[in-house]
Specification:
Radius of gyration: 15 Å
Strand order of the largest sheet: 1-3-2
Number of strands: 6
Length: 116
């Protein structure tokens, strides 16, 4: 029988962060396997805040609220088509998982300072 430790005697490994060309306007990407990819064009002075934002998504996935496949993003069981403009643009107005991430990470949607 499996059980869950409420206070495990070990520390969770830090998240692995990689860099790749994610395309124009994409700052970072969080993956189901717990990794984060930052846009290689992102100025290093912004890495910590983008990682903070992506860590919210890692947490959302680990608690079962957020998931995705090739066509949809799933938030609390509801499917949001990736082809929808608001979802594709990561708008917090149309994407509740993004609203939570922007709020918790104290980052701003479409902030011009990133220049990616």
């Amino acid at each position: 029988m499996a059980f869950k430790l409420s206070n495990p005697p070990y520390k969770k490994e830090p998240v692995s962060v990689y860099h790749a060309d994610l395309g124009d306007g994409v700052l970072g990407q969080s993956n189901r396997n717990g990794t984060i990819v930052l846009n290689e064009k992102l100025d290093p002075k912004f890495h910590k805040e983008v990682i903070r934002h992506e860590m919210v998504h890692i947490n959302q996935m680990s608690r079962g609220d957020l998931d995705y496949d090739d066509k949809n993003i799933y938030w609390k069981g509801k499917a949001y088509p990736k082809s929808s403009k608001g979802v594709a643009m990561a708008s917090p107005k149309n994407s509740p998982w993004e609203a939570e991430a922007y709020n918790k990470s104290k980052t701003k949607y479409k902030d011009k300072k990133y220049n990616v």
